[in-house]
């Protein structure tokens, strides 16, 4: 059953690009595809488009369901829909699967036109900058001169920020949520452990496991388990699982604690549906993003070219993308006299909080988005 | 269906003499930081009357949201932690309107305001107002329009008189550019520490 404020039944679409895309690394993608979805109606003067950038494991399937029988809707369904905080009665919303992804956009598992075989390890390392450049191509494809807003959490927040730097004239508002201007050493360290789990899995075959009909499941599973620990706060894990046992103590290494069952379940589920090469590339994009680097690590100087209005949101219990990192972004925006509001949401869920339908958090987004002016009152 | 959520027609229900005085001290089109901005009423007033580029600072979730609903930029942070997110002399005017008395780190916030703002506006309820004195004389903590709390639920921790604040500025080497004292909408020139219930200061750091 669909809720009555759902975008309803949706279908993924594909955009094919024949013009080569030069990546930050210097590598060139001769052609590529981006999978995307849209919700709501583009208004007459094309001023109501909002792009949603996904985080590490997200997709273009942001809202709605593919069929009545789908168990789950898109990953940010609680945000997007008629009369929801990102109101599809007002906005034309676009979800896109990032380049290098494994849900329809060109990535390691796609066929390399040069060889007729999966790209595998040969698929280049893509960066946040590359994603934003490819998303701009999608805007061209859709005939959109600019975005009313770009929204993203975590790695998606980095893309939202990057949009304002790469295309200052094509984005009016940026909502940067639970994000950071770059990763700390500790944050990158978690990514390194996750990657090592994948790369050292015997089934990885140097990234060309498709040719071996293999999947580095164990590595991917461990990487995801580690990720899940860091997305929750100590308090949230305590509240959710505590030291609860499934049965009595067995004196074994089985999943005796409920926390262990949860992590194993999440790891197994993820390993069954996500591509290891994509995971490697998504984490690397996180590591590499550092807009201040070419400016002598001066974030204020790096953000000088931005023109957008900003909403920056962090969550008190998020230790992987802590409020202090969001405040760095806010300070750099203030230094540049840009329009910015900043909310530090009291939440127990850690980094995961940005996906939760917390009432105050959603009120913040609803208020900010409803204040965005769009031309032509002819959105449906 | 279109929503028109931007509502700029909030009528100020009551004439605010203190807002009018603050607006008289703020220059047209300048950059203003309002600390403890509440629902952003003052920022809205200054934006509408002087087209200032305004930012508010507010700690409380509900007030923060109300401020955003009023169309103001608002940064959520605790003033007790100082203003480390703001550069030296990066605002034309920094305002602390009727919040000084509720601050724990009084000296620190005044110094921080003088660091961040080229000019500073501080307003506070004058504890030396005769009605307050009278209530003390009759044996009770004062409760009034500018001090609307009971002793047990007041957020105010550092109440002072005009005379106290004058001394504070002298001791901290702060230049008082202008001082206005009002009682409701009336300017008070004669015996302000006795007859005024709201003190308003325009300050700057002594060079």
Describe it.
The complex is a heterodimer of chains A (380) and B (207). With 380 residues, chain A is of the alpha/beta class. Chain A is built from ten helices and 14 strands. In chain A, the strands form four sheets. Chain A has an eight-stranded mixed β-sheet with strand order 1-4-8-5-11-12-13-14, sandwiched between helices. In chain A, a hairpin with a 5-residue loop joins strand 2 and strand 3. In chain A, helix 3 runs antiparallel to helix 7. The radius of gyration of chain A is 21 Å and the shape is globular. The two termini of chain A are 24 Å apart. The mean pLDDT of chain A is 96. Chain B has a single domain (17-205), classed as 3-Layer(aba) Sandwich (Rossmann fold). The longest helix of chain B has 11 residues, at 106-116. In chain B, 29% of the residues lie in helices and 24% in strands. Residues 1-12 of chain B have low confidence and may be disordered. Chain B has seven helices and eight strands; from the N terminus they run H-E-H-E-H-E-E-H-E-H-H-E-E-H-E. Chain B is globular and about 45 Å long. Chain B has helices at 17-25, 41-50, 61-69, 106-116, 130-137, 162-171, 192-195; strands spanning 31-35, 53-57, 73-75, 91-97, 117-125, 174-183, 186-187, 198-205. Chain B is of the alpha/beta class.
């Amino acid at each position: 059953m669909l809720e009555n404020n759902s975008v309803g039944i949706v279908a993924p679409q594909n955009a094919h690009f024949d013009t080569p895309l030069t990546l930050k690394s210097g590598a060139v993608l001769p052609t590529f595809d981006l999978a995307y979805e849209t919700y709501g109606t583009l208004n007459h003067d094309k001023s109501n488009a909002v792009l949603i950038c996904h985080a590490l494991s997200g997709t273009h399937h942001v809202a709605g369901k593919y069929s009545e029988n789908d168990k789950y809707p898109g990953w940010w369904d609680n945000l997007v829909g008629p009369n929801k905080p990102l109101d599809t009665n007002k906005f034309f919303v676009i979800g896109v699967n990032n380049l290098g992804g494994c849900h329809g956009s060109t990535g390691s598992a796609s066929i390399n036109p040069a060889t007729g075989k999966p790209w595998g390890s040969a698929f280049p390392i893509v960066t946040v900058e590359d994603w934003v450049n490819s998303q701009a191509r999608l805007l061209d494809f859709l005939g959109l001169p600019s975005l009313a807003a770009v929204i993203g959490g975590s790695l998606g927040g980095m893309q939202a920020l990057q949009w304002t730097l790469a295309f200052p004239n094509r984005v009016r508002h940026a909502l940067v949520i639970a994000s950071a201007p770059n990763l700390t050493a500790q944050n990158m360290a978690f990514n390194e452990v996750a990657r090592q789990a994948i790369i050292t899995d015997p089934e990885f075959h140097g990234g060309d496991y498709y040719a071996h009909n293999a999947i580095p499941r164990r590595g991917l599973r461990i990487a995801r388990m580690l990720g899940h620990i860091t997305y929750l706060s100590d308090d949230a894990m305590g509240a959710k699982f505590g030291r609860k046992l499934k049965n009595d103590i067995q004196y074994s290494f089985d999943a005796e604690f409920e926390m262990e069952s949860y992590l194993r379940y999440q790891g197994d589920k993820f390993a069954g549906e996500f591509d290891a090469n994509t995971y490697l590339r998504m984490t690397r994009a996180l590591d590499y993003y550092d807009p201040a680097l070419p400016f002598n690590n001066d974030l204020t100087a790096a953000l000088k070219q931005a023109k957008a209005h900003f909403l920056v949101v962090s969550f008190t219990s998020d230790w992987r993308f802590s409020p202090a990192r969001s405040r760095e972004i806010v300070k750099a925006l203030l230094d540049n006299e840009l329009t910015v509001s900043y909310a530090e949401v009291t939440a127990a869920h850690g980094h995961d909080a940005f996906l939760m339908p917390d009432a105050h958090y959603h009120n913040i987004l609803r208020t900010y988005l409803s204040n965005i002016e769009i031309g032509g009152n002819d959105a449906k | 269906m279109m929503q028109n959520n931007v509502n700029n027609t909030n009528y100020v229900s009551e004439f605010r003499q203190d807002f009018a005085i603050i607006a008289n001290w703020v220059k047209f089109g300048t950059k203003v930081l309002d600390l403890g901005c509440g629902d952003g009423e003052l920022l809205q007033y200054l934006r509408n009357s002087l087209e200032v580029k305004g930012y508010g600072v507010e700690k409380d979730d509900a007030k923060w949201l109300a401020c955003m609903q009023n169309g103001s930029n608002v940064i959520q942070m605790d003033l007790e932690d100082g203003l480390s997110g703001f550069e030296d002399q990066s605002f034309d005017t920094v305002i602390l309107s009727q919040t000084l008395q509720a601050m724990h780190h009084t000296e620190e916030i005044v110094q921080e305001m003088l660091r961040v703002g080229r000019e500073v506006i501080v307003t506070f309820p004058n504890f030396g107002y005769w009605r307050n004195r009278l209530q003390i004389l009759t044996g009770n903590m004062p409760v009034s329009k500018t001090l609307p709390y009971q002793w047990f639920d007041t957020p105010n921790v550092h109440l002072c008189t005009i005379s106290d604040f004058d001394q504070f500025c002298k001791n901290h080497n702060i230049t008082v550019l202008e001082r206005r004292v009002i009682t409701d909408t009336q300017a008070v020139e004669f015996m302000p520490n006795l007859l005024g219930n709201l003190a308003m200061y325009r300050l700057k750091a002594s060079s």
